[in-house]
Known about the structure:
The protein has 133 residues and is of the alpha+beta class. It folds into 2 domains: 7-89, F0F1 ATP synthase delta/epsilon subunit, N-terminal (ATP Synthase, domain 1); 93-127, no CATH class. The protein has 2 helices and 10 strands. The strands form 2 sheets. Strands 2-1-9-8-5 form a 5-stranded mixed beta sheet, with no helix packed on it. β3 and β4 form a beta hairpin. The protein is globular and about 55 Å long. The model has no long low-confidence stretch (mean pLDDT 92).
Amino acid sequence: MAHRHNLTLELATPTGRIVDNVEVAGVEIPGLLGEIGILPDHEPFCGPVAEGVVRFVEDGADRRIAVGRGFYEVDDHGLVRVLVDRACDAADVDAASVRSALADLAGERGEGAARDEAYLRAQLRAAGAAGGD
Length: 133
């Protein structure tokens, strides 16, 4: 098998594609046990995506996308598919609105509230805003 220099990345939610067939040198995906870095010629496999930030470089610019839970797949042709329940590009994050939503969640209990909080904090991390720790 010939060595690949790039991967093809797709990232989609139930409402549509956020990233559509973008050539990347590598991608970092948040997993349940930490982040996984995927480079060209990675073995095919799949795994779960946790709330966090998907990172990659597109046309020389860093891209960060906050994602909810889902799954990723790496195929034997260098295609990486990331399928998540929700996603937000860092450029679209309104930090004030996110902080307000986090304040509204304060004191909420349960798995749904914890997942919402994790996703909101991922948006702040993606945007490089304070409060995403």
